[in-house]
């Protein structure tokens, strides 16, 4: 039987993560010799943890809040998506022990959208709620895919505007704008795809609040 290899997720805090459950179930179903473990790593010790993972022979590791941007600065090489997003959510160990950073946030969202709905963002009018790391990843993926128009709305309008300008700098032919949450219901009615990257709707009665401005014909996923 092959020696079990270690995979991990680093974050702080990590009480909410289901990553070990999902990854270990997948590895078991596929008969792969991997064991996935969660490590709660404080930012002050994060660089040591990354170096330690290589020293202990980890096959790779995932990264979540608040380490994605810090990881970008620690790896030796990055994928194109990670470069565009300025953040890393997965690290693989390459030949010679070199660390390569990847970002699968946008690609994972796009694949889920297309597989579950059969809808491609190409040529579509898209609205993103929120202006954090997930919003950045999805905005970039929408621009790469050829969305006709991207609008980013956030409680702090300046953050949405800044993110829109940043994405525009990479994709100058993409029509993209940022703003606040005013007139959100009318903005939603003018869009084909709406993406909520905020924490609103994650649990309890807020789930209903999150859907309050959606047109009736929209199908939540």
Spell out the blueprint of helices and strands:
Elements: E1 5-11, H1 19-30, E2 34-40, H2 46-55, E3 60-63, H3 68-74, E4 77-78, H4 80-85, E5 90-93, E6 99-102, H5 105-117, E7 125-129, H6 133-145, E8 149-153, H7 157-170, E9 176-179, H8 184-189, E10 193-196, H9 206-210
Parallel strand pairs: 1-2, 1-3, 4-6, 7-8, 7-10, 8-9
Antiparallel strand pairs: 3-5, 5-6
Helix pairs in contact: 5-6
Description:
- The chain has helices at 19-30, 46-55, 68-74, 80-85, 105-117, 133-145, 157-170, 184-189, 206-210, and strands at 5-11, 34-40, 60-63, 77-78, 90-93, 99-102, 125-129, 149-153, 176-179, 193-196.
- Helix 5 packs across helix 6 (133-145).
- It contains nine helices and ten strands.
- The chain has two domains: 5-103, Leucine Dehydrogenase, chain A, domain 1 (Rossmann fold); 110-210, 3-Layer(aba) Sandwich (Rossmann fold), CATH 3.40.50.
- Strand 7, helix 6 (133-145) and strand 8 (149-153) form a beta-alpha-beta unit.
- The chain is α/β, with parallel strands linked by helices and 221 residues long.
- The strands form two sheets. A six-stranded mixed β-sheet has the order 2-1-3-5-6-4, with helices on both faces. Strands 9-8-7-10 form a four-stranded parallel β-sheet.
- The model has no long low-confidence stretch (mean pLDDT 88).
List keywords for this structure.
single chain, 221 residues, alpha/beta, Rossmann fold, six-stranded mixed sheet, four-stranded parallel sheet, 9 helices, 21% strand, elongated
Would you tell me which CATH topology of the largest domain applies?
Answer: Rossmann fold
Supply the helix-strand structural class: alpha/beta
Largest sheet strand order: 2-1-3-5-6-4
CATH domain class name of the largest domain: Alpha Beta
Percentage of β-strand residues: 15-25%
The count of β-strands is: 10
């Amino acid at each position: 039987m092959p020696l079990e290899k270690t995979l991990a997720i680093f974050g702080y805090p990590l009480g909410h993560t289901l990553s070990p459950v999902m990854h270990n179930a997948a590895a078991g179903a596929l008969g792969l010799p991997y064991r996935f473990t969660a490590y709660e790593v404080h930012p002050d010790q994060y660089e040591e943890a990354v170096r330690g993972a290589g020293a202990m022979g980890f096959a790779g590791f995932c990264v979540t809040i608040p380490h994605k941007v810090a990881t970008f600065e620690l790896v030796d090489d990055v994928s194109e998506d990670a470069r565009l997003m300025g953040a890393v959510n997965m690290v693989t160990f390459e030949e010679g022990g070199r660390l390569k950073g990847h970002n699968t946030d946008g690609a994972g969202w796009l694949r889920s959208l297309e597989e579950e709905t059969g809808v491609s963002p190409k040529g579509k009018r898209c609205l993103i709620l929120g202006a954090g790391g997930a919003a950045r990843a999805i905005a970039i993926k929408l621009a790469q895919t050829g969305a006709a128009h991207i609008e980013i709305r956030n409680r702090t309008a300046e953050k949405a505007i800044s993110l829109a300008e940043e994405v525009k700098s990479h994709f100058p032919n993409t029509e993209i704008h940022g703003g606040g949450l005013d007139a959100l219901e009318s903005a939603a009615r003018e869009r084909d795809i709406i993406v909520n990257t905020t924490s609103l709707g994650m649990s309890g009665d807020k789930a209903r609040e999150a859907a309050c401005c959606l047109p009736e014909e929209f199908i939540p996923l």
